[in-house]
Amino acid sequence: xPQASHSRVRRRGLTARDIALIGVFAALLAVLSMSxxxxxxxxxxxxxTLGVMLAPSLxxxxxxxxxxxxxxxxxxxxLPLLPGGRGGPTPFVGPTGGYMLGWVLGALVxxxxxxxxxxxxxxxxxxxxxxxxxxxxxxxxxxxWSAVALGDELLATITAAGVFLPGDLAKAALAAGIAAAVHRxxxxxxxxxxxxxxxxxxxADTFTDTAGTDGGTGPAGSTDRTE
Length: 227
Fold this sequence. Notes:
Strand order of the largest sheet: 1-2
Strand content: under 5%
Largest sheet: 2 strands, antiparallel
CATH topology: Arp2/3 complex 21 kDa subunit ARPC3
Number of strands: 2
Helix content: 55-70%
Order of helices and strands: HEHHHHHHEH
Oligomer: single chain
Number of helices: 8
CATH architecture: Orthogonal Bundle
Number of domains: 1
């Protein structure tokens, strides 16, 4: 019995609900990306990282990462979803390219850390996950990339990136607060279709079909007896 219970938590693939959630959150990320940006240099201050933190906090690692990948794919395709109406592959080779690529790994890390605390999402661990994935991982990729793209010293770029830190910490706290409220009021089901349930259903169907076939030919089958 414990093995059967454990098998039901294994999931694979994506359901129609998963795809819909990915689309909704990709659209949300696009809205946050196109919202008012504060230009403080080659890398503007935006609300993008709020969406990057919120998606995996609510949807988990798989769907949260796919949200970011979907958004970036739309940008590469040319949709003007970045601040200032930019789109296409050009922004990825500029000073902001590293930050956008860092979103992918950051969302994955947040989702994996959130998975460790479920089924009960808590604000402080959630805030820690957002700081580690949404700030630490993103900065780890974005800052050196920006230094190379601008031809600046790494230390100078790290110092310049400090202007983003207060806002990113506020967004990490906001995302954790929203996620805590949503998980408490309406927990989002895990991604994928339960593998254990599929296996159990298939086994039950097979057993039923076999029993029905054997019932007509076995000793108990009264229709095959001749008095």
